[in-house]
Amino acid sequence: MQHYTKEQLEYVLNYVRQVYKSRQLKQTTLEADSGIDQSTISRLFNERMEPTVDVLRKLCAGLGTNFEEVLRTPQRAAPYLLGYVATPLTGLSDRQDRELRNLIATLRGLAGPTSFSNPRFELYWPGDFTHPKANPEHTSEQVYRKDRAAASTCNFLVILALDPSYGVGQENEIATQAGNPAIRFLPEKTSRMLRGSFLHAQNITVTGSLESGITFDHNDFTRALQWVQQNYFLQFPLYQNMNGHGFGDRLGQLLERRVTNRADFAAKLGVAQQYLDVMTHESFVVSNPSARLLKRLAVLLGVSVGYLLGDSKEADPVWIDSQAAWRKWTRTPGIEAGLANDIREDWEAEYLLKMGQLEPSYASHRNEIAPRQEKDWDIEYQKRLKRVSEERNGQAALF
């Protein structure tokens, strides 16, 4: 079993608490969605008990997000691959609803542990959590945010394009923008818009309907799941160090300092005000703003896109504070400029190397490396000065 530090678990709990509050949920709703007792949720949120991995996994799933995606553990492969099953949910007769549930059970059986392991598969179906009849307590915004989060943070999608559905079409596009592969069940007559999408997908032909019964080749689905595994192991080493969770903090701070009217700002940006809330409180993979939207944000806030994404050193508080301390320290009388520059360049190279090797800090949104103070620069300077002096004296002794 994988070991997680106390700081990592607290980080996930803080994220769960933040999203729960942002979506204006009730603890009883989160209890129903996660399977965790309301009393346990209350004790966790009030810091009267320590979080466990199992409980946090269920709470993340209850919010429609993925524990591994929140934690972003770079060197660890996921213990299971989570698939989001997109299906029509509204406008179905009782007969169609029963056929759909039987189909979901069949898919879960085919993807079960007897067929796949290391990693195994789990299938998440919104019908278990945000069904319009079975779960009327969810508001429209809560349903959208939960299902968007689930479709974004899953490892792949299973799309059942059986009947016309705006929801399935949206989930197809969410997966496309998130770069998630998909397995699509398509009848012979499917809209050209769906078939022509840019989604990285394996298509399986189905016959019949939810009214008459659905049939498909089970071996096609098994081969498609194997394809999903191959995609995961292809992409995992490439993107394991990606981390976009600082985006929301940076954006939130900028909005706090520079925006007095968020409704007006959202209108200028061209989005609903609720989207600002999602971008500041949920993980970057969930909000997933487009390149065009990021450019608009940068223009309105007077910063670079690199700053928003954290790809610029100017977004790093350790870098900023250390450089500021160095500049202040160099005003000290008697400092040799050449040696001072050498010290700074060596620190910069070492720091950038370390930052490329470190996991993100889970105790806070800051880096684990502390910024250098004026005294730290001076201590290193005195060490270098002494070493240079000893080298010079040694060379003089040779003559």
Polypeptide structure, described:
- It is a single chain.
- The chain has 19 helices and 7 strands.
- The strands form 2 sheets. Strands 2-1-3-4-5 form a 5-stranded parallel β-sheet. Strands 6-7 form a two-stranded antiparallel ribbon.
- It folds into 4 domains: 1-73, lambda repressor-like DNA-binding domains (434 Repressor (Amino-terminal Domain)), CATH 1.10.260.40; 77-242, Rossmann fold; 246-313, 434 Repressor (Amino-terminal Domain); 317-398, no CATH class.
- The longest helix is centred in the last third of the chain and has 25 residues, at 374-398.
- The chain is α/β, with parallel strands linked by helices.
- Mean pLDDT is 85; it is low at 357-367.
Features:
single chain, 399 residues, alpha/beta, 434 Repressor (Amino-terminal Domain), Rossmann fold, 4 domains, five-stranded parallel β-sheet, two-stranded antiparallel sheet, elongated
Task: Tally the helices.
Answer: 19
* Spatial sequence of strands, sheet with the most strands: 2-1-3-4-5
Uncertain regions spanning at least 5 consecutive residues: 357-367
User: What string, H for helix and E for strand, traces the elements in order?
Assistant: HHHHHEHEHEHEHEEEHHHHHHHHHH
CATH topology of the largest domain: Rossmann fold
Largest sheet: 5 strands, parallel
Shape: elongated
Number of domains: 4
Average per-residue pLDDT, rounded, comes to 85
Strand-pairing-aware structural class: alpha/beta
Note the beta-strand portion.
Answer: 5-15%
CATH top level class name of the largest domain = Alpha Beta
Report the CATH architecture of the largest domain: 3-Layer(aba) Sandwich
Number of strands: 7
Distance between the termini: 65 Å
* Helix content, binned percent: 55-70%
